[in-house]
Target: DUF3311 domain-containing protein
Amino acid sequence: MMRRGLAGQRLVATFLGGALLFNYPVLSLLDRSEPFFGMPMLWVCLFGVWALLIAVAAWIAERGAG
Model:
């Protein structure tokens, strides 16, 4: 039972971390004109952080379900 509460807390922390990373001041640091593999750095970071948040949430959910 304690494991589910800890998983819920970790998911909330993941959400808050994602909200912080998708906020304006952090995104403005990445808004540069240099491309990264032909794509703007902002788009690469947005999709990278998005994929990372999905992976972390899935990992927490799978670990908490056992």
Remarks:
- Residues 2-65 form one domain.
- The two ends are 11 Å apart (CA to CA).
- The chain has one domain: 2-65.
